[in-house]
Design brief:
Structural class: mainly alpha
């Protein structure tokens, strides 16, 4: 049985385990809540799916630093952006207003090449260019490819002019006869 510090009451731990929006934090609160109720580490491991060693580390972290250390600590770890800085994103937004050097359409590869030149790097992965576009709330917009065998506008007009007009369809009359889907029934008395 692991000792759990009194940072939060058992009731509050249970409430946070049930209402946490972050699934990882909810599982951590559940584990600490079960340990705070006096359950053993192997029992809590069986319920939560965590291994005993991780539960001991989690309890030690909670006891030492409190409830703010629960949850997924891999994200929002305080590291500053090294590549996609706000300054770079502003320069990219300005650069995307004009066509790329080859005159075609912007692609993630072209954006990555521009980013590498702007930052003085040898190369930047195209995925980082996609990340930059998403940070700007933009996406690559590619036009639909044109069929190489498509008719010219003049050929299309000639086709429409020489095509026979479809004959107007007659409207079908709504059948007025009785339904024949079941056996006849008599409504006469007698």
């Amino acid at each position: 049985m692991a000792h759990i510090a009194d940072h939060l009451s058992v009731e509050e731990l249970g409430r946070r385990a049930r209402t946490s929006a972050d699934a990882c934090a909810a599982r951590h609160y559940q584990a600490i809540w079960l340990l705070a109720q006096g359950q053993t580490v192997p029992d809590v491991a069986a319920v939560t799916g965590f291994v005993s060693r991780w539960l001991e580390q989690l309890a030690r972290r909670y006891n030492q630093f409190g409830p703010d250390t629960l949850g997924d600590r891999r994200r929002r770890n305080g590291a500053t952006a090294r590549l996609l800085t706000p300054e770079l994103l502003d320069r990219l937004r300005t650069r995307l207003e004009t066509p790329p050097p080859d005159g075609g359409a912007w692609t993630t590869t072209k954006i990555a090449t521009w980013m590498a030149a702007d930052l003085g790097l040898a190369s930047v992965y195209p995925q980082r260019a996609w990340d930059a576009l998403q940070a700007l709330d933009w996406s690559i917009q590619a036009p639909r490819p044109k069929n190489p065998a498509a008719a010219s506008p003049e050929e299309q007009a000639a086709f429409k002019k020489n095509s026979p007009t479809p004959s107007p369809r007659k409207k079908r009359a709504i059948p007025g006869a009785r339904s024949r889907s079941s056996a006849r029934t008599s409504t006469a008395s007698g």
